[in-house]
Every structure is written in C-alpha cells, then in structure tokens.
Amino acid sequence: MSRSRSSLLFWTVLFLAFGAGGSLAYIYSGIYDISATKQHTRLVYWVMSTARRQSIKTHAAGDVLPPDVADANLVSAGLVLFDRHCSQCHGAPGIAPGPIGLGMAPSPPNFAQMGRDLPAEEMYWAISNGIKLTGMPAWAFRLSERERWALVAFLKRSTALTPADYRAQRDRLASAGVGEATSRDSGGRWEPDGAAERGRVAIQQYACATCHVIPGIRGADAQVGPSLEGIAERLYIAGNLTNTPAHMVEWLRDPQKINPLSAMPDLGVTERDARDIAAYLYSLR
C-alpha cells in the first residue's frame, strides 16, 4: 500500500474514532434535552422523518393485495374503529386529539393528512406494525386484518367528511354495532418451534418487558416480576400449576383466575398469542 493511501486510511479511521467518541460523550453528557416540551433539533427531526418515510416505503413493498377500500361497509367499520382507537391521537373531523395526542412530540399527523400522504398499502403497513420513536403502536396484535384494512378505507375517504357527517355516522353506526371487535385467534395445533419467533414479537407487544427480565428482548430488565430466564426448566407456574405448555397458555390468558392474589394483570392475550408467547418462553432453556 502506498504511503499516501496509508495516510488517508489513518486519518479516516482517526476522524471516525473522534466522531464516535464525540457522539458518545455528547450522549453521556445529558446536554440533549429529551423533554416533550422542547422541539427536536432540525437535524434530528429530518433524520426521524426521512427514516420513517423511507422505511415504510421499503417494507410495505410486496405482494399485499388490498381489498376494495371504497367498499361502503369497510369504510363504515373503519369510521367506528378510528373513533374508538385512533381519534385520541390523530383527531377527527371537528374533533381535537385528546390530551395524550396533544402532548406527544413529534405530534401525531392529522387524520386527513394521513389519508393524503400514504398509499393504501403503506398505510396498512404502518397501522399493522407501528412506528418506533413516535408513539404509534402496532395494531396487528390488537385488530384483525379486516379491521386494519377498514381503518385504511376510512382514512382514504375521510378527507371529504364534514364534522356534522362524521358525528352523525359515528353515532348511527355505533348504535347499530358496526365495528365491533372480531376474533384474532387462529386456532390450530400446538407448534412450539414455528411459533417461537412470532412469540418473541408478541411478548414485546403485550409489554411483558415492563415487569420481567426476558432473555432476547432488549430493554427487558425490570425487576417487578420474576425473571423469565430458564422458565422452561421450572417445575411450576405461579406456584400453582405444573409447568406445561397448556398451563402456560392458561396462565397467560387469565392469571387472576389462577391466582387472584397475583399482581400479574389480565392483558387480554388471545389464544394464538398466548401459544406463541409460550413457544418463545419454552425456547429459553
């Protein structure tokens, strides 16, 4: 290697090392203000918004075949679901977001802007998977596929909806039972190997990391409940049940029924999600 090339490599490595060291020093100094009352810097906002836009575009590309989002029944169901789950952050025609949505940073986009900005496939992906660092949750573990497409259908048709029409339709549809939750359980036999990876995602979506140490889950270091490390080797669950997959599913779905004195809450875990979470837990040997 020539002397000039070696010199260039040396200065490049030195520059990167100083840059990394400076970034770490800046982070550890606590200078950056993370309070929600302060705007992100222009650079941070650009990085977050660009990463969000490009990530959605990249990951939403695929073979997803959307239903007819102009279907009136789908739009109607979406209106009720949006009012119930989304208006608190995104607002609705003539209705402001709730205190949580108004206090978030960055502010959640207005419902009408979402309907204009994203194609249906990208909107469905964002609703299903959520968006990190924004407060947008992943609804794939809360709503069925049809319900998520119903939200897309409503958002695509909502830009022409007046406040009076929105309220009238919401009240009429809700009283008629439109938009009621559908089952997300898929049934099927016990498949501990195939379900473990989905269970790893599900265990995050039910916020188990806020109480337990969980191997393989970053940030799962809370000491509220017992560590789940090596749980597959334990003899009992909650001190009451023998440690079997069926009992684990039973415990995850209704812990208060098993032990009314337990602080473990009922998280509304579905049958399928409980099986998949159990599959992940039994992989922690």
Automatic annotation (TrEMBL):
GO terms for molecular function: electron transfer activity; heme binding; metal ion binding. Residues 174-193 are annotated as: Disordered. The keyword Protease does not apply. The keyword Heme applies. Keywords: Electron transport, Heme, Iron, Metal-binding, Transport. Residues 182-193 have a biased composition (Basic and acidic residues). It comes from the Bacteria. SUPFAM superfamilies: Cytochrome c (SSF46626). Residues 73-159, 194-285 form the Cytochrome c domain. Pfam families: Cytochrom_C (PF00034), Cytochrome_CBB3 (PF13442). This is Cytochrome c. It comes from Microvirga subterranea. The lineage of its organism: Bacteria, Pseudomonadati, Pseudomonadota, Alphaproteobacteria, Hyphomicrobiales.
